[in-house]
Write a structure and sequence with these properties.
Shape of chain A: globular
Largest interface: A-B, 28 and 21 residues
Strand content of chain A: over 45%
Structural class of chain A: mainly beta
Number of helices of chain A: 0
Number of strands of chain B: 11
Distance between the termini of chain B: 40 Å
Number of strands of chain A: 11
Largest sheet of chain A: 7 strands, mixed
Order of helices and strands of chain A: EEEEEEEEEEE
Helix content of chain A: under 10%
Radius of gyration of chain A: 13 Å
Structural class of chain B: mainly beta
Oligomer: heterodimer
Chain lengths: ~110, ~110
């Protein structure tokens, strides 16, 4: 059963703590993406990776970091430098960097208090 | 300008009605325009997409109309059903960058 998994579905953290969100795909896709979704603002790109060991900043990368050590995995760390971390985080993948079709995971809702 | 403007923000129609969601863009370099459907607590799912060399595309009850000269495109849902109640996002992409630019979303409610 192929797809994108994100865990956990809900995550709670105290302000000042770093937190890592998991994203795994078994679609054999080369490209992976992280988006942030806030009410009334659509989806905004945080980071993307077109190939293993390479990634680029998106439109709102400040306060976030990623790694791409394996093709299947693209974890996102929300650092304490991110001023408004509470949001719904979505991971996506596409066959390669030239594909226009992105497939999304179920998301992780992060709440920081 | 890498923005896609979407309207309305929310929409309520009766079952069987035809909701229409509109999007507009400025950057003529965009060359692929997908629509995503998102149910509460879930990730968006690709619904239908169009390229600017086509004026209309239909897939089942969903139709995209594209007006290249006006730089506008819209989603029509024929014979809408309560199960279509979801948030719909339009998006656009520039070739070579592979970054989707999303509209702000339209929350659709189809009443029984």
């Amino acid at each position: 059963d192929g797809g994108i998994t994100q865990s956990p579905k809900y995550l709670f953290r105290k302000e000042g703590q770093n937190v890592t969100l998991s994203c795994e795909q078994n679609l054999n896709h080369d490209a992976m993406y992280w988006y942030r979704q806030d009410p009334g603002q659509g989806l905004r790109l945080i980071y993307y990776s077109q190939i293993v060991n390479d990634f680029q900043k998106g439109d709102i990368a400040e306060g976030y970091s990623v790694s791409r050590e394996k093709k299947e995995s693209f974890p996102l760390t929300v650092t304490s430098a991110q001023k408004n971390p509470t949001a719904f985080y979505l991971c996506a993948s596409s066959t390669d960097g030239n594909s226009y079709e992105q497939y999304f995971g179920p998301g992780t809702r992060l709440t920081v208090t | 300008q890498q923005q896609v403007k979407q309207s309305p923000q929310s929409l309520i129609v009766q079952k069987g009605g035809i909701p229409i969601i509109n999007c507009a863009y400025e950057n003529t370099a965009f060359d692929y325009f997908p629509w995503y459907q998102q149910f509460p607590g879930k990730g968006p799912a690709l619904l239908i997409a169009i390229r600017p060399d086509v004026s209309e595309k239909k897939e089942g009850r969903f139709t995209i109309s594209f007006n290249k000269s006006a730089k506008q495109f819209s989603l029509h849902i024929m014979d809408s059903q309560p199960g279509d109640s979801a948030t719909y996002f339009c998006a656009a992409i520039i070739p070579g960058f592979q970054k989707l630019v999303f509209g702000t979303g339209t929350r659709l409610l189809v009443s029984p």
